[in-house]
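User: Show me a protein chain along with its predicted structure.
Assistant: Here is one chain, sequence first, then structure tokens.
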Amino acid sequence: MSGTRPGEPAGSVGPGDAARAAGVTGISVSNPDLPGPGATSPGGTRIGRPAGRLRHAEHVMGTVFSFDVPASAAPVLPEVLSWLHWVDATFSTYSGGSDVSRFGRGELTLAECAPELAEVIAECAVIKEQSDGYFTAWPGGRFDPSGLVKGWSIERASNMLSAAAKTGAGGAGPSGAGPGDTGASSTGASGTGHSVNGAGDIQCTGEPERGRPWRIGVAHPLHPSRLAVIVAGRDFAVATSGTAERGAHIVNPHTGLPATELASVTVVGPRISMADAYATAAFAMGGAAREWAESIDGYEAFAVAPDGTTWQTSGFAAYTAPA
């Protein structure tokens, strides 16, 4: 893919160029418009390097989902993609006929909606309580669980791939592996792990190659041609919230005003659904985010302030990798 971002002049440098130079396997940004390094054009699939890997990019949910999977996952990938499009149709806030829109208008009861909506609402309620209300499924008083749905979808897609890898067959179903069950025991040693990247939020399992961890570059929110940090590991997730791609779009629910005290927050941990929601909540908190992020078991955070200064939680260094 070209490193040029939409709207940039030809020849300009984007985070993809820095990622390739650093040898990373994905990029985490606040809301990218392009697939990660090595991906095909949206809708295309190819076997890429290293040998035996399949890379696919799919336009869905108004963005791009990129997959880096072993070639053996080819039989189940269409099912995963079909499920993501079902999620798009069911949870879209832009479609007046979706379950989310109709529930928000009071036209459907929760019992009349897809059962997955109740699951999403329950997870949103847990994170709202954990974050003292900085994460909510009702931003501005309007029902919109999108802050969880994308990460939840990435996680479920990853679980489907893991379940298929364990059984050696397709037809895993969206709940084939439990939350956080990445299938590492069956994928890590052989280098047949996978990554699912939804709009810059990424769930990684196992290894892309035997003995090589996943390396995820975090785009710098103030310098588009640079990476702020590189995280690496096996069986982990990384999510970034910030202003780089969409401006000040995250609102502080307690003030009703756009959150502007931070330029970006990246959260790493075992589950992308939680990492994504935690990153959103931390960004909305602004100056209070660091202390709160330290209190979350199993998750670490890295933040960039508008003046370029950075901070990270005490355990974040365990994920960092040299450039």
